[in-house]
Protein kinase domain-containing protein (Triticum aestivum), 683 residues
Amino acid sequence: MPGLIWLCVLLILSCHDGVDGVTEFIYNGFARSKLHLDGEASISKHGVLSLTSSSCGDSSFTQGHGFHPEALPFVNSHGVSMSFSATFVFSITPSDSDTSGDGMAFVISLAPLSGTWTDGQYLGLVNQDDDGGTLANRFFAIELDTVANWEFRDIDNNHVGIDLNNLTSAASSTAGYYSDNVEKDFHFFNPLRLSSGKPMQVWVDYYEMQLNVTLAPVPMNKPSSPLLSYYPIDLAKVLKNDTKSKAGVPTTAYVGFSASSGDWCASQQIFGWSFNLYGPAKPLDLSLLLPPLKQVQDSSRQEAHDKKKVVKWVPATISSLAILAGITTCLLFRWWWCKKRMSERNEDWEAELGPHRFAYKDLRRATNGFDDNQLLGKGGFGQVYRGVLGNSGMDIAVKRVSSESKQGLTEFTAEVIILGRLRHRNLVRLIGYCRHKVELLLVYEYMPNGSLDSYMHTQTRHTMLSWCQRLHIIRGVACGLLYLHEDWEQVIIHRDIKASNVLLDGEMNGRLGDFGLARLHDHGADAHTTHVAGTRGYLAPELTRFSKATKATDVFAFGAFVLEVACGRRPVGFNARGELLVLVQWVRDTWASGSGSILDTVDPRLDEYAADEAELVLKLGLLCSHPLPVARPSIRLIMRYLDGDLPLPEFSPEYLNITDVDQVLDEVPPSVANSITGLSGGR
Ligand SMILES: *[C@@H]1O[C@H](CO)[C@@H](O)[C@H](O)[C@H]1NC(C)=O
Ligand SMILES: *[C@@H]1O[C@H](CO)[C@@H](O)[C@H](O)[C@H]1NC(C)=O
Ligand SMILES: *[C@@H]1O[C@H](CO)[C@@H](O)[C@H](O)[C@H]1NC(C)=O
Ligand SMILES: *[C@@H]1O[C@H](CO)[C@@H](O)[C@H](O)[C@H]1NC(C)=O
Ligand SMILES: *[C@@H]1O[C@H](CO)[C@@H](O)[C@H](O)[C@H]1NC(C)=O
């Protein structure tokens, strides 16, 4: 029987091996294939391609490459990139369980990779002395990376990335896949550990400059949503040999795999590979890959086997009553064992992969059944309850978000999962979430000192925030916003900065909450309504016109917030005579009027404050509230003004006086390029 299967393997291999012409091939196992091997790469007698050997011993730096022997016409004679599609099954097994091992890459390069390049983190793609740019290594690669290298701005130690001529990925994502829920419209992110030793399948689809990368555990079918989708990539440009005269565009390139092992040893194996230059790659026949796959799985199989033995042994020897008892014991043991493993795994993932998915009943228990006594507040998105997690005793705040639009909620959930990866000392951390019917429950860390709003505007508070505390909070919020706008891998527009969204932790640090949440409105709103999320007084003038949130609209809201904290008044409120008072105008007019000083607007409840700091803060608040988006400083600049690294530019009150904002805005449309939250792309 096994002989027959192997005969089939050989037959299929022999008829596919290169016979389909130069543009399509399928390797259901690599036995007898004519791959171009280099370095440590080898093909076992079962047809498994190993890129490096797992026993690295003393010579710790090893690498290997396996390439299809013929160059393929990736670019036509007019310099236009051809589409292609590829799929392969791989596994990465670290040599000892404590380390993750180094990763590997699927590569298209001008020449088959070879040579004496060193060090694990370079994945066998580049020499550490020439990271990209040189003619020898024009390449396009999908990296399956298991080490976080800060020099390449890796997002974590378990990610899939798209590399264009250098190892700083153009796009990357934590390894995993989106499963297609029964509800169809909802894609739930399931993390995968690349270096688990388990076989996984990758699909790479490139069509009209769009590149999709999809990952799934074997033997799952291809998930319908890709893990990574990137546009545009022009393969012809990526592979262009700069030194070549005239066009310099190559027409052919080589395709294959590359890996290296450095301080962390691992064995990277490929079991099968299908490729097509002009259409979808033929699906791999997993049953043909199975014999070698079985070997890899042996170790994990062994564990399961041992467990089964116990299950069988107990009932077989004793009477039927004992059988029952035995089964019960086993079920209990299994339950305990699974639970233990689950919780361990969750801890792992939590540390690296973002928010935890909670069970609804746990959150209900934590909040005493969403008891009214636990209510912390009501926001634009729903109620917030205080809770205590049963197993850890951790204090949490649970926000119940509901939406009329189910579609909106499901799309939004995917973004929430991304938002959960954000970590910054000036952001309220999103610990986890739970989706229950039409509700999304968001679990945040609990902020013992509540919202800034209650300190600013509630008369019953005994404690008045001092000037020092206020300045510290403003700096903290600026720092958090800087992280969202510039320092994270994607630009996050907060969209709803205001005093009630600034929370105070135990040390009275200001922390931004609800980041990205205003997006829910976007997902929910239908195309014809121009609903703008945000709060009156914090809304930039162009936002009400163009409904397009940008970094500049966030800065406007930040300006309103800064004035609010310094003056102790709401952005839009009433003065003692009951007249409407727009804070920005009032501060500006007080400054402009010859009789007064800008410092007259400082919160009268403050007994003492540093006059130079107060002046800086007030003027900065005004500058951020400039009617024209282009006139507002970036958050990085704001940070430097606040830190005293740069003096605030000199300006007069008239600078802020644009009488006909609408007319000017028509001439200067706001930048729309940077309005990205969550999933929608890079900066
Ligand atoms: C590396 O590639 C990225 C994305 O293609 C690009 O933005 C970056 O400038 C490159 N870095 C270097 C050092 O070439
Ligand atoms: C990539 O994925 C998107 C979303 O699923 C899909 O619309 C698009 O057609 C895919 N493109 C390719 C090249 O597969
Ligand atoms: C790039 O062009 C130069 C000059 O023609 C040539 O020497 C070099 O081999 C080319 N590089 C590759 C990878 O083809
Ligand atoms: C802030 O919270 C901490 C810890 O709960 C508490 O000790 C402190 O008194 C609070 N500060 C104010 C000003 O309420
Ligand atoms: C701004 O313009 C308005 C209308 O032209 C004028 O009444 C006001 O005095 C100006 N304010 C300043 C500060 O120049």
About this structure: Residues 27-282 form a domain with the Jelly Rolls fold (CATH 2.60.120.200). The pocket of 2-acetamido-2-deoxy-beta-D-glucopyranose (ligand 1) is lined by residues 132-133, 164, 166, 168, 170 (CB under 6 Å).
